[in-house]
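Changelog note: in this version the structure field was regenerated for every chain. One regenerated record is shown below for reference.
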Amino acid sequence: MSADVATGGDKRGTRRFPRWTRDTARPEGGGRAAPGDAPAPARQWPLIAVLAVAGLGLLLTAFDLFRIGTILVGVALLGGAALRWVLPSVGMLAVRSRFTDLLTYGLLGAAIVLLALMAQPDPWLRIPFLQDTLHFTVR
């Protein structure tokens, strides 16, 4: 038995996956957002922007501005979805495929914003059928 066959390697160009993977493919758009000679923060500015807005939202939430803080966290995720859609390279903001990242960031961001708008007491957004559903199921 040759050494290539024993280690799982095959030089024939087969379409089968290797037995052991040594690396994972980078997600599409996972390249640098700035040239390679730029400093590290400049290369990852999309991720830093999303984290800064989310961090500001968490800070506002800690200072008892719950609704505005959580809306900012949701807006940060929606901004991440927008950056992922518009920019060809977003650095470490690209985690999965573009479609999966858009879906994940967008749905989570929209859900957080909507829940923050509907939070009690004195919600900024009232959805009548949800109130009727609550009365029907709980009371």
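Spot check on this record: The chain has a mean pLDDT of 82. The radius of gyration is 23 Å.
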